[in-house]
Fold these 3 entries.
Entry 1:
Amino acid sequence: QDYPGICMCPEDHGKCDNNVCIPNESFCDGKDDCGDWSDEKESCNDCLAKMRFSGSKSICDGIEDCPNGEDETVELCGCPSDHFHCSDLSNQANDTNICQPMERLC
């Protein structure tokens, strides 16, 4: 179903690339429910892709919902609030990309 003029889909619906909203259970069901095949991508078995499609608020919430934890990675979510990246402070791209505890900041 198309919801013109809104940015969010109703609860239990995901947004297709063409802004059509379809029920979450229609994502990767083998049918072109979106009309542009954006609900039937190669990433159908990807937990994070399913979460992104449904607009899940569980991404970067501190709880690993995907078996491999891909919904909570540092690359996706950044460091926890009590940590920092050295590269953020030094502006050096080659500086470490590991989250450091604030206690290490001097």
Note: Residues 47-53 form the longest helix (7 residues).
Entry 2:
Amino acid sequence: MTSETTTDTLDRQNQQMTENLAKKISRLRDLAVDIETETKDSNRYLDRMDDDFNSTTGLLSGTMNRINIMMSSGKGNRKICCYLIVALVLVFLILYYLFSWLTSS
């Protein structure tokens, strides 16, 4: 009789350990699926970001080409470009101080 109760106790403990192991495996599987989903979402986001940067690069290179053409076309255009650059710097500085003043208030 003692061997039967010992066997039953061991069987019960074995089943309980098996159930605990199955729960842990299930949690690990769910975690792996969540990691896979997050990875796929991150890759999609990075791909879209790469496309945005590529289009911005094309836009900026076209703008730089136009500025280079305008700078090399003559003295009159150089004077206008200098005024334009100074005006843009001043606008930037005014906006910078305006935003810093608004955020500090």
Note: The CA atoms of residues 30 and 55 lie 38 Å apart.
Entry 3:
Amino acid sequence: MAWRSQLSTHLKELRIHLCQTSPSSASTRDFIIRNYKDLKMLNPRLPILIRECSGIQPRLWARYQFGVEKSIPLDGLAEPEITAKLKELVLKFI
């Protein structure tokens, strides 16, 4: 899990979009509950933004240098799969 401490090295911002009530966002909500504290503790200067909006599909956004952004849909993914997708976004530009 050493890659978790490298978030702020490779990312400028991490955003998670989700719905507060929809079943498709349930695993994303669980991911946030279980992982936000550790991610923020390891990367205190990295903006980790949680954006809730009714009726949207969950999505993970990563912003890199020079405004480059990548996103991955999280609809239907379990919590370990969301962790794997985040790791993929972090390690993509190493």
Note: The helical segments are 7-10, 26-42, 79-91.
